[in-house]
Structure formats: C-alpha cells, structure tokens
Amino acid sequence: MYPNLNTASRLIYFFTVLVGLSLVGCSGSSKEPLRKLSRDEILELKENQRWSLDNAAFETTDHDKATASELERFKRGEWAADYYADGSHNIRRVVIRPATYEDNILAILIKNIGYHPGYKVPLVSINCDSLEFIIDDLYRLETEEIKNLLDTIPPDTLEFFDFRKIIIASIEKDCGLPSVERHGDRSVKAFWSMIQHNEKEQMAYYYRYIERLVQLGDLHPERLALLTDRLLVFNDYKQVYGSQIVNGELHPIENPDSVDYRRLEIGLEPLSEYLKGFDLQ
Questions:
Q1: pLDDT for 137-184, tens place per residue?
Q2: What distances in angstroms separate CA 186 from CA 39, 132, 135, one per listed residue?
Q3: CA–CA separation, 173 vs 135, rounded Å?
Q4: Considering its fold, how many domains does the chain have in total?
Q5: Which stretches does DSSP call E strand in the chain?
Q6: What whole-number distance in Å separates Cα of residue 105 and Cα of residue 97?
Q7: Core-most of 40, 89, 130, 159, by most CB within 10 Å?
Q8: pLDDT for the residue 39
C-alpha cells in the first residue's frame, strides 16, 4: 500500500499526499472572480436578449440572503440591484438595495430599448456645412414651413407627425449627432433643446448622447441635470435637482434635504432662489 519506508517516512509521505489532495480540492472549488456590471453592459445584455438571473444568488448589501419580502420589493421596482457577472457575462450575484435615481434612469432606458426616433418619420435634407447657422431656424420652423419641405408626404397625413422629431431625425441622418468640434457650439445647444422639449421616448433615446457631451465638455452639466429631471418626471418618478415645475407646483424631489448640495455641484443656485422666478416658495 505504501512505498518501502520506515514509520517516520510513512507519516511524512501520508501528510504530503493529504496536503496535495486538499490543495487540489480547493483549486477545483475556487470561484471565478465576479465583476460588477456597468449600466451600459446591463443595457447591452438586455438589448441582445442575453439577460438571465436564473443562476444568480440574491443577497442584500449586508451579504445576507435576501428575504421573501425584500425580493418582493425588488420585483415591484421599489428596490434595485447591483449585478455581478463572471467572465462570460453570466450573472451570478445580485445585491438588492433601495433604488436611487440612477436606477430609475436605467429602468427608463431599459423600457425604451427598441425605440428609434427616425422610425416612420419623414425626413428633410439638411445642409450640414451650415448647421450651426441654420439650426436655430430649423428649431423654430412652423408646421406649414415643414410641410413645404416634404414633397413626398401628403399634407393631410403630416399632422400625425411631430415636426420637431422630423428635424431631429433629419439632422442625425445627414450630419450625425452634433458635436462642438464638427458642428459648433450653437448646434449642440439647439439640438439639446429639441430633445429636452420633446416626448419622453426621444429624451430617453438621446440621454446617453447628452451624457457624453457633458463628459467631453461640449455641454454644461446643468443641461444634463435638466434632462434628467424632465425624463424622470415624464416617467412618473421624483426629480433630482428641482428644476421641473408641473401645473404651477414644484414636482416632488428625491431626497429634498440634500437638493441644494446636488445643485451646487453643477453650478446651480439654491432651490429657493430658483423658485422665486416662478413665484414659489
């Protein structure tokens, strides 16, 4: 059974084999390190229909196993989660917690998957070389003026289309998404304004584009804050920065006690000063 060894040597041999087997067992059972998924990775998995929580363990931020009531709050959308995946993007761990406004934005973007603002929208020709000089006029085009540009669309069907949506989709098709470097500062600000004052699906579709503009320094963070508030309000969530007045009243704010800190971070005046412009306290 053993090699031809004395008693002491046999003990050493047995111990060596035992340690080796234990190390093999540990290495075989070691777990692959997991990585927290970013918002873009979550959206990509959703878009490609590769999203599955079937093999994931649910826990709380205290590393406790999630209770039935906590899981129910998660299913209802009252709580959100951080998702941890292996190297193949298979989700193995879900840490549930109270939702933040970033989670609400993510929920809106997920809901908006599959939407495209140019779908079934008639397009006009845009002179991209002069975009910075003509975009203000494009933004202010009236219904009849747009009708005159659309030779292929019967005037009696045009009323079903959002005219600003036509301009946005046409600019993107002919010129790409505006940037300061390619199209000038005025183009970027006017394009943001068209998005800001449009339907919630368009706001959601272009939200990440506006984020990138702010990161590049092409837009002031205030513009993203205004879009964030408006997108949240249009989707029945509380706002974050207190910019949205609805029916003459300030729309409810998430964590209102710290709203002035958030406003200060992006260079906005205190909320009380802002509300004076609306004769609100």
A1: 888 876 666 666 666 555 555 555 577 888 899 999 999 999 999 999
A2: 30, 6, 8
A3: 15
A4: 1
A5: 35-36, 57-60, 79-85, 91-98, 245-246, 249-250
A6: 16
A7: 89
A8: 97
